[in-house]
Amino acid sequence: MDIIDDLPDDILLKILSLVPLKTAFDAQLLSKRWRKLWRRLSILNFDRAFHKSDISFKLFMHTTITFLEYPVIESLNVRSAPTEISHGLLVMNDLLVNRVLRKVDVFSAHRDRSILSYYIYTYQTLVILKLENLILEDNYQNYFRIDITLPSLKVLQLIRVKYPSDEFLSRLLSSLQSLEDLILDRCLSDKPGTTTTLAILVPSLKRLRFVTCPDYCRHNVMMLNVNTPCLNFLSIEEYWRNVSFADRKMEELVEADVNVIFINTKKLLRTLISAKRLSLCLVTSKIPHGDVVFDQLVRLEICTCQKEWWNLLERVLLDSPKLRFLKLHQKHRFGIMDPVARWEEPSVFPDCFVFHLETFEWRGYEGTQEEQKIVSYILRNTWRLKTATINIHPEVSLMMIMELLAMPKASTSCQLVIQYINDPWK
Questions:
Q1: pLDDT for the residue numbered 192
Q2: Once rounded to an integer, what is the mean pLDDT over residues 92-107?
């Protein structure tokens, strides 16, 4: 204890900021040196597990925040346990409104047990807001009466959160003029059987990640409208719904991972043509080549779980003259496969095959007749290929492996690597 007591206050405060505030509070019993040290903390970790009841938990939060010496709270982290219903975890508006609050992170161990007050949307200095497994207070009139004033918010993460309505969520997002990073994970977030429209209209947004679970999507019909022209990163996992993108390319886009089904594929590809790294899982028909050029694309990943996925592959390859890395991956355990569909070798091969493509990888290769044709086509026509890695399904036979090894290659320096994988979907 003497060694710890000799440490500077800054070091002790860093130590206390790593533990629940109840532990930091109890540390004042150790010695006089620790008696009021917790009052200078700017990172507050409240954990319901350290309290006997919700009442004692909220009373402790109220008391400790009242006696803090510094007006700035860099991070307020709240962890709620699923023992009792916790109404309005952050109704301490009178305590926080006069403080500079930078970050709020609230997590509930059970999504139906913690209800968050709408007053969270009034914190003027908030920069980061992370909510997980929560119910936003179900008072619809209050949501439309209260002004959403989060002028400083740059990062918003809503993970499995229940909202009063998608109309409210759209309104919330459109009011965040400084928002740059958005994560929406809607798995298990709403009641099934609704038909709604969610608009993500945020001109300042730079990073967007939108996730819904396939099982949830089967019971919901929703129109997702995305209009975010300044994005440099896009990730959408959205199935069995209608997704719409603005009819213009995203000039700043660097990386995109798009997994959707009901969509205008030609329109989508036009919005993504500025990307350097692209991952696609789409249901497509034969798409004419020629009106879109991915002149910045160097890395491409195509999911092979959907019907006639090779049409999308051919389309993007022909329009990607600078492509250097190609990966085929069966990313999902579900899909719309057609065992009678046949791949036809295109009459022309992509420019990238001659000048740039260096790395080819296939993960989840099953050795079907169509897959063998595609692998053979790529190996025979990629003149600068350095590495071809085929991660095969556990059920692929030794004879199929020998056929892979015997395939001719245009590049004499290409190294062919074949290996088994236990789980092709990882």
A1: 44
A2: 80
Distances (CA, A) of 154 to 6, 57, 297: 39, 29, 28
Rounded distance between C-alpha atoms, residue 334 and residue 325, angstroms: 26
Strand 103-108 relative to strand 75-80: parallel, antiparallel, unpaired? parallel
Q: Residue 370 pLDDT more than 70? A: yes
Tokens (6 digits) for 11: 């070091």
Quote the pLDDT of residue 292.
77
Strands (E), 248-291: 255-262, 277-281
What beta strand segments (E) does 26-95 contain? Answer: 43-47, 72-73, 75-80, 86-87
Domain edges within the chain: 1-153
- DSSP secondary structure string for all residues of 377-421: HHHHH-TT--EEEEEE-TT--HHHHHHHHHS--S-TTPEEEEEE-
Torsion of CA 342, 347, 351, 352, to 10 degrees: 20
Residue whose token pair is 């049409």: 311
pLDDT at 90: 52
SS3 33: helix
Q: Rounded to whole angstroms, how far apart are CA atoms 392 and 30?
A: 60
